[in-house]
Amino acid sequence: MTAYVVRGARVVGGEPTDLLIRDGVVEAVGPDADVAGATRVDADGLVALPGLVDLHTHLREPGREDAETVESGSRAAALGGYTAVCAMANTDPVADTAGVVEQVYRLGQAAGLVDVQPIGAVTVGLAGERMAELGAMADSAARVRIFSDDGHCVADPRMMRRALEYVKAFDGVVAQHAEEPRLTVGAQMHEGEWSARLGLTGWPAVAEEAIIARDALLAGHVGARLHICHVSTAGSVEILRWAKSKGFRVTAEVTPHHLLLTDELAAGYDPVFKVNPPLRTDEDVAALRAALAEGVIDVVATDHAPHTTEDKECEWPYARPGMLGLQTALPVVLDTMLEPGLLDWDTVAERMSRRPARIAGLTDHGHDPAPGAPANLTLVDPAARITVDPADLASPSRNTPYAGRTLPGRIVATFLRGEATVLDGKAQK
Ligand SMILES: NC(=O)N[C@@H](CC(=O)O)C(=O)O
Ligand SMILES: [Zn+2]
Ligand SMILES: [Zn+2]
Fold first, then answer.
1. 255 ligand 1 Cβ < 6 A
2. Contact at 8 Å (CB) between 409 and 382?
3. Band of the pLDDT at 178, cuts 50, 70, 90?
4. I want to staple 319 with a disulfide (CB 3.0 to 4.6 A). Which of 20, 271, 285, 407 is the partner?
5. Rounded distance between C-alpha atoms, residue 30 and residue 47, angstroms
6. What angle do helix axes 205-222 and 234-245 make, rounded to 10 degrees?
7. 91 in ligand 1 pocket by Cβ < 6 Å?
8. Which residues, other chains included, contact 143 with Cβ-Cβ below 8 Å and sequence gap of 6+?
9. How far away, in angstroms, is 150 Cα from ligand 1 center?
């Protein structure tokens, strides 16, 4: 196993120091961190963060390997500074059995670029009717702890209650895609001024907020853990604040795109901006940024959702919703949160690594580089600027909403259990 000496890194934004990485751990930090024969990594001006952890990634394997495979998505993740991703269950077949989650888990291990932690479906086939075999998935080699029908809402309150009761037994968590389906029939974009002007059916904020309120109450009643996916409205933030003040075990995520982009981007009818939940208003963006700074929203999760050009480059109403996110997440967070002073490096590490690792129960992840810690870390150059070129991305899909945009922060290196998965901005496998 290669030993590395990382020279002059600012650990979580602190003073420059050296790191010795050997046998899967950070062996030493400081001027004595050295050993003969180690590979030297010049980290002058770079910030070392605990490896990022994504609670919400769509890898499209099994079923849509033309859009993304476990391997290509793992490579995108490593290049984005991630060391662990949680893979959503809306594959084909759906990850609703021990067999499918074990398959995804093993594909992740074989790719060896990040830890791929499968999420299990709540209901069979995401159909909302019969509960999936949650216990068998939890007991499987994949050790599933997060369950979600993401892509669909668990709309039936009785099903949601039973799922919360079930996961409580093994300290699991239900991750809800909060969308009251009766309020979003035919919806194409945020319901507001722009949907009226463009003649596209609206997806009202209340469709999200009503489910968050209902499920927060259910989680409080049951005493189980609930996680809210891709929170997108100012009203949702108020409900989350209230739920937390009650002591309910509710956590929430925001995506990078909901921190930066707004509904008026639909004006060009380019479906690259079509996503679920939809891009909202400037007021929503401001509320989401403030909530992430305050901690009412716990984490940033990418909702990386690759789609092929056939599924994306068509008329708006026929296009699939979703955006790539893994390779641009940290730059967008630096742009929207760090540079304006809403987060510092420590809180970036908290929202993108430590807290998501704790929510997912990934005990090897979310540790600051310190002596004895598992060597899962990333090095970022905050002074560099990247210009996003869809053709450069690791996914076979091209649906990034940031094409041509310049963003701060270049991921220079990523280490998974002491092995470099990315060096000099290039994937090592
Ligand atoms: N976010 C999206 O617009 N799409 C996701 C599903 C989801 O996250 O709800 C997908 O699987 O493509
Ligand atoms: Zn969703
Ligand atoms: Zn999703």
1. no
2. yes
3. very high
4. 271
5. 15
6. 10
7. no
8. none
9. 7
Q: End of a domain among 334, 360, 386?
A: 360
pLDDT of residue 29: 98
Above pLDDT 90, what percent of the chain?
A: 99
Distance 110 CA to ligand 2 centre (A): 27
pLDDT digits (tens, 9 = 90+) for 313-351: 999 999 999 999 999 999 999 999 999 999 999 999 999
Q: Residue 1 pLDDT more than 80?
A: no
Round to whole Å and give the CA distance between 333 and 315: 30
Cross-strand bridge partners of residue 225: 173
- Ligand 1: residue whose CA is nearest its atom 4: 322
pLDDT at 126: 98
Range of the domain at 185: 51-360
Q: Is the CB of 275 under 6 A from ligand 1?
A: yes
Rounded-to-integer distance, Cα 307 and Cα 396, Å: 9
Name the domain count of the chain. 2
- Is there a single domain that holds both residue 287 and residue 388? no
pLDDT digits (tens, 9 = 90+) for 89-117: 999 999 999 999 999 999 999 999 999 99
Q: Whose CA is nearest to atom 2 of ligand 1?
A: 322
Beta bridge partners of 422: 414, 427
